[in-house]
UniProtKB/TrEMBL annotation:
It comes from the Bacteria. InterPro entries: CHP03086 (IPR017520), DinB/YfiT-like (IPR034660), Maleyloyr_isom (IPR017517), MDMPI_metal-binding (IPR024344). This is TIGR03086 family metal-binding protein. The lineage of its organism: Bacteria, Bacillati, Actinomycetota, Actinomycetes, Kitasatosporales. Residues 8-129 form the Mycothiol-dependent maleylpyruvate isomerase metal-binding domain. Coiled coil: none annotated. It holds the Pfam family MDMPI_N. It comes from Streptomyces pathocidini. NCBIfam families: maleylpyruvate isomerase family mycothiol-dependent enzyme, TIGR03086 family metal-binding protein.
Length: 187
């Protein structure tokens, strides 16, 4: 699966689960122990509000604090949909993944940024599904693609505190389970 296909699959997986959140589920816990369902959706919605700006070359200072705090308001699903309506075309713009973007970690290739966003979409789709009691099965090609991307660098990401320490999963387990275990989740 190519990067942009994986990104689109991640958007689909996460977005489908956002649309499954029931009225009483926004305060439910998730495998991200510090985040409720609302916190998790807010995190990804904020990331997708940032994306068009960063892909146009804006610096962190230029974006400022406009996407800090609660970006979901009274209509979390609509807020997610609006963020994606701007984020998706920004990633698909010709040449968008060949530029560089400013991130909190410094200047980063836009392709690498897209991989990080895709990873976040996939793993948090699983987290969200677990939080709301929905089917947590990810697109198998997406899980395999993200696993192939993240596996060589997982230790560095864990060392930086991006993901929890890995959870042991048998090598014969499905790729989704190996991905979640690698990222500190218990499949």
């Amino acid at each position: 699966m190519e990067l942009i296909e994986a990104f689109d699959a991640g958007l689909e997986e996460f977005g489908r689960r956002v649309h499954q959140v029931g009225p009483g589920q926004w305060t439910a816990g998730t495998p991200c122990t510090e985040w409720s369902v609302r916190d998790l959706v807010n995190h990804l919605t904020s990331e997708h509000l940032w994306a068009p700006w960063l892909l146009r070359g804006a610096t962190l200072t230029e974006v400022g604090d406009r996407f800090d705090g609660d970006v979901l308001g009274d209509e979390p699903v609509a807020a997610w949909d609006k963020a994606v309506a701007e984020s998706e075309p920004a990633f698909h713009r010709p040449g968008a993944l060949e530029s560089e973007v400013y991130t909190s970690g410094g200047l980063l290739g836009a392709g690498e940024y897209a991989w990080q966003m895709t990873t976040d979409l996939a793993v948090h789709a699983w987290d969200l599904a677990r939080g709301i009691g929905a089917d947590d099965t990810l697109d198998e090609d997406l899980a395999a693609t993200v696993y192939g991307y993240i596996e060589p660098q997982a230790k560095a990401w864990q060392g930086a505190g991006v993901f929890a320490p890995p959870v042991k999963v048998p090598a014969s387990a499905p790729v989704q389970d190996r991905l979640m275990g690698l990222l500190g989740r218990r499949p």
